[in-house]
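Anyone? Bumping this.
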Amino acid sequence: MNKSLWYFAAAVTLAAAMMSCGGKGSQPSETAAPAANTAGKPVDSATAGTVTGSIKLDGTPPKPRNINMAAEPNCAKAHTTPVQTEDVVPGDGGTLQNVIVYLKGDFSQYSFPPATSPVTIDQKGCQYHPHVLALETGEPLSVVNSDQTTHNIHPVPKDNREWNESQPPGAQPIMQTFARPEVAIPVKCNVHPWMKAYIGVFNNPYFEVTGKDGSFTIKNVPPGTYTVTAWHEAYGTSDQMVTIGPSESKSVTITFKATSAASD
Amino acid sequence: MTTPRPNRNVHRFAVFTAACTFLLLVAGALVTSNDAGLSVPDWPLSYGSLTPPMVGGIFYEHGHRMIASFVGLLSIVLAVWLWRVESRRPPTKRWLRWLGVAALGAIIAQGLLGGLTVLFFLRPSVSSAHAILAQLFFATVASIALFTSAWWEQKTGLWLRDFRSPSIHTLVLITVAAVFVQLILGAALRHKAFGIIPHLAGAVVVTGLIFLVAGALRRRFPGVPELRLAARGLHSLIGLQLLLGAAAWWSRSYASSFPQPIAVMVALTVAHVVMGALVLVSSVLVALVCYRLVRPAGALLGSVEPRPSAAD
């Protein structure tokens, strides 16, 4: 064998060795930011108020589309009726579900106890349950797979660390946290491209996701002036100012127009 | 000393490798169009094994990896085979050995880039580089198939003349470069690095150049079957590619309101991607054929002249 052929064989071996050096599917974990402000004073519950209200939808919502799960029998057999998209889900009485409502204001003087109980997102019937959820920075997110098929869970954040993990049937829940506030992080399963969810992350406890009746209640709010912001995946954000006096309860109604597909 | 005859089996194997590479391009395009690029979160294994459950997006992503591994194996065999066969040729022909090594290096780099697309969550620059190198590898293997063909060996006796300016050599080289840039713009659009405008501008330039080259081939070399065929082929491919491009764009707009990739969008975008690869490979092969058959005017004394040697 001539010398050049030896060099060639060495190059191929080196290249093969390089190819075999793989990595995991997620980035190295970042240093977690403080879960919440713990340096300030606790909110005085004796003077704290409440912001309540509802999110309305003005106009005719778009017709949901049927999801085709035929390519994945394990998903299809979990449903007896057609599964539909959840990007716009009207609530009772002209309200809107799956809206993250949160307060924007100066909470720097307050401390909040760290949220330690996990918030769960379940993959069931090849859909995310719930479709929209919210949690605090550092609060554990528990990802459960109740399906008889493999999923990958892939949040696509802008401000937090991106990760992508697989979860076969019967696997233990995946526990993750988010270090920075972000509204809202899209979550997808690339195995089943129709699966989409959104996660709102906050560094205070003043948020809620609207349910069937489109209402929200944000308790233990210190007196002050705040912006109530509502975020929806199809309609973007809408704001309203509110001033809470000591032990006061204020009601806010925010209306999204069904025709305006804002993308904030 | 007699020159050994070209090894037909190497040529057949190179053609087979090029065909498998085309299949690999189809598989890769299917991954992107089905949004399945991250359905397998780990690399180089898939779900920690070589045989993951082939469901949903995993079917496309792991299928792509399996075909890529097969093409990688073919490239190793091709490189070793070329090295052995071409080492017995005159020194001036031995460059072909290194082209086989270059192809092998390209497919190894391509495998690494593929892994990086997973590890970096489809970063546009990495995904675009992966798409571009795929096209370069395809063009390299197709060129090897041409260089090892009997036709390439036989066309050693006569030069065609080209007195026109710009020379056909200049025209085909500019066209190959323009098609390659256009593929970069297309890959960048597909992987969300650029918008559509640069790709549309590139389409206008490439279409103009291909019409120029095809017209020049027809007018300057009307009696040469290979070049007549090349002109027809280039015309057909660019026409089809323009139609596919428009259809792919329409299908993407139409599919945007669906909760998942739909068949018509997947079929049209994949067809547009692989047709782009065929346009590049065709333009490269036409350029090589032009260099094989035509000599620049300044180097000619008459209409035809014997080639200085078969081993140029």
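Late reply, but here is one note on the structure posted above: Chain B has two domains: 1-154, 157-312.
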